[in-house]
Amino acid sequence: MSHSFDPASASPYYGFVWVDLTRHAEASLAETLDGAFDIHFVDDPEDVSNAIASRRPAFVCFEFDEPSAQGIDALTRVRREHPALPVLVIAGRNSMSIAIWAMRLRVWNFLVKPVPLRELCSSILTLAALTRDGVPQRPRASLIASG
């Protein structure tokens, strides 16, 4: 996976909340998007609701390395409190429990690490386009996993 990204091919006007539940900051895929989007980072699952209320994002992205009760609780809370807000979930290869929760909660998309940068940006741009008018589309019926 390339770790460089041309910000000119995206837009900093697409604002969203990135919930970084990785164990190490350098492991987060968000690092590859630096400067390409207006990303508000949250690393404490307890702060997600406040970030959504203050930022009014187009969507929320949850990035997991491994399942955590706090992370899954935050994801469940977001889907319950903001059912129209699209959610993108990115998880490690061995995160079957997160995939099951993502399906149950009807997230917009589920990606499995390693995610090619082009695919990640494509998902973000698609979500941004779907929510551009402030009216999110219904969640997709199927989840797409990369690998």
From TrEMBL:
<protein>
    <submittedName>
        <fullName>Two component sigma54 specific Fis family transcriptional regulator</fullName>
    </submittedName>
</protein>
<dbReference type="Pfam" id="PF00072">
    <property type="entry name" value="Response_reg"/>
</dbReference>
<feature type="domain" description="Response regulatory">
    <location>
        <begin position="15"/>
        <end position="128"/>
    </location>
</feature>
<dbReference type="GO" id="GO:0000160">
    <property type="term" value="P:phosphorelay signal transduction system"/>
</dbReference>
<dbReference type="InterPro" id="IPR011006">
    <property type="entry name" value="CheY-like_superfamily"/>
</dbReference>
<dbReference type="InterPro" id="IPR001789">
    <property type="entry name" value="Sig_transdc_resp-reg_receiver"/>
</dbReference>
